[in-house]
Amino acid sequence: MLALLCPAFLCAQDQTEPQPRPNGPYQIRGKVVNGLTGQGIAEVRLSVSEGAQPSGGPFEQIETGPDGSFRFDHLAEGKYSVQAARQGYAPQAYLQHENFWTGIAVGAAKDSQHLRFKIFPSATMTGQVLDENSEPVRGASAVLLRRELNEGSLRGAVASVQQTNDEGRYRFDHLPAGKYTVSVTATPWYSRYAAQSGTMGNLARLPVAGRQLNARSGINFAADGGQEQLPDLVYPVLFYSGVRDENDAEWLTLRPGETAAADFHLQPMPSLHVQVFMGETDPERPPSISLIRSEEGQQVGVDLRTVSPGVMEASGLLPGRYHLVVQETEGETSKMREQEVDLAENTRVELASINSSGLSVRGEFHTEAASPGGAGIWLQLKTSDGRAYDAHLQSSGTTSRFEFAPLPQEAGTYRLLVINPPGATVKTLTATGAKVSGLKLQLDGTQNVQLSVTAVQDNLAIQGMALKEGQPFAGAMILLLPENPEDWAQFARRDQSDSDGTFRIAGMAAGNYTLLALENGWELEWAKPEVMKPYLEKGLPLQLTKAPQKPAHIEVQ
Q1: pTM (2 decimals)?
Q2: Which alpha helices (DSSP H) does 126-223 contain, by range?
Q3: Cβ neighbour number for residue 194 with a 10 Å cutoff
Q4: Does 22 sit behind a cis peptide bond, omega within 30 degrees of 0 on the bond before it?
Q5: Which architecture characterizes domain 361-457 according to CATH?
Q6: What is the CATH number of domain 123-186+235-265?
């Protein structure tokens, strides 16, 4: 069973009215145990919701007995979702992995009375951030990253963010077991003074109380004509343990109930500056400047000041490669210029006078039949390095017009994806101003592009049963892979088998697929063909069509 990021029965169970009870002659019974020791746990709050994919809140809540036992009586035939919560334990659904769990099948010949519900103590990550003088850094941003599957590849995903306290400490509680690391972003306390002076050098001058600053920081400030020189310094973004690149970060394995510490000792470095020469601009509507670090794809915070008409300066930057974006407004039109900047020292960037808003890519989206109620359409152009440009619109009959966010004025290859509606397949793609190869567009960076996209919405489903040695198997990861490995990251679908071994995957387009059932596949990088090769050999080939599909029985690997 698949949960979305915030499933209703997990997130809203305390804020919604109890749902109607599905009365019947059946029971769900079992015992909640500590997943580490196997001992029963008393006073665990259990909530039960109707459906393996519940759309509403729970209809009953109970607590386990002294030995961890529980029972839900008078249930109708069907499937149910059960979730557990207790102090010291992260909320967990039955056999939960990531945002998937196992629904409990209830009915004649269904064993729903011998459940062993394992829950695991939550973990904790703590740490302290100190500056170059071993003084606590207050207000530093500590970002907790968890290593998890994202589109079939293991990556760091932001799990939580905190600000350090007066002692420079942070603490992340109630964590499920897993691999974690922490990144820290901070600003030297004295940099706010330096930012006000605005020079292209690495020294800023301000009249300040030198003794007070020296006593606080230990930095020597040379006097000059009654003013003192504040160093224009920044702290680099650090990942544990003290590295600047996430790829070099140390990942700590947090087991249930464990506490780990990730401490940081920050060392400042000279701030780099970029002066951007933009030519003639409207003084009444100054342009906006943003810089995005190419490595992380994240916009960085910078200090901006106007040097002179048409010239702006960004400071507080670290060495690296940035994507510079300048936006201006002329009348009702927003115009944009973009440029890559390699920053190793203070730099001046000259941009041509603004006369376009980037490359325009627009067109028409055709379907065979109008979507009931005007369904939302979400198209995306995606580069090989992960940059994505979106077009959102509401369907208005069988033909809808769309326009993507402006693309950079540079040559590149983009792949067209239909994110929504689910199960949509592009049948034809034609373009003026770009070369087309399948669903790929080759742009030369100089021409605007007009597209015509024709799609059909199949919205097909596959259901079946996962078996282990001929018996239904609960908790298996069900994976449906499209025929083309290039489509795996975007269009593969997953589910988790319920207590009777059954599963269902919907929203699929017609085509050829391979169905897999994996017992321990939750950390498998399934978007990588080299990883999946040994499993594909034992997979079940499927051809999804609009014809009725027989249930698929698949052996668990």
Answers
A1: 0.72
A2: 191-194, 210-217
A3: 25
A4: no
A5: Sandwich (2.60)
A6: 2.60.40.10
d(CA 78, CA 532): 34
Distance of CA 95 to the CA centre of its chain: 23
Cβ 510 vs Cβ 460: under 8 Å = yes
What are the residues facing 479 on neighbouring strands? 494, 516
Amino acid at 262: A
- Percent helix / strand / coil, the chain, rounded to 5: 5, 50, 40
In whole angstroms, give the CA distance from residue 407 to residue 447: 11
Residue type, 308: S
Which is nearest to 123 in space by CA: 182, 178, 179, 175? 175
Distance between alpha carbon 350 and the CA centroid of its chain, in Å? Answer: 35
* Residue 483, CA distances (Å) to 265, 279, 444, 546 in order: 49, 51, 30, 18
Domain formed by 8-119, architecture: Sandwich (2.60)
By the 8 A CB rule, do 381 and 404 touch? yes
Compute mean pLDDT per 10 residues along the chain, 557 residues long, and list them.
Answer: 44 55 90 94 93 82 95 94 92 90 93 94 96 92 90 86 95 93 88 50 36 38 45 85 89 94 92 83 76 67 77 83 78 69 84 60 79 66 80 74 82 86 79 89 89 84 93 95 86 92 89 94 91 93 88 94
Burial of 378 (0-12, 13-18, 19+ CB in 10 A): middle
Given a contact cutoff of 8 angstroms between Cβ atoms, the answer to whether 292 and 312 are in contact is no
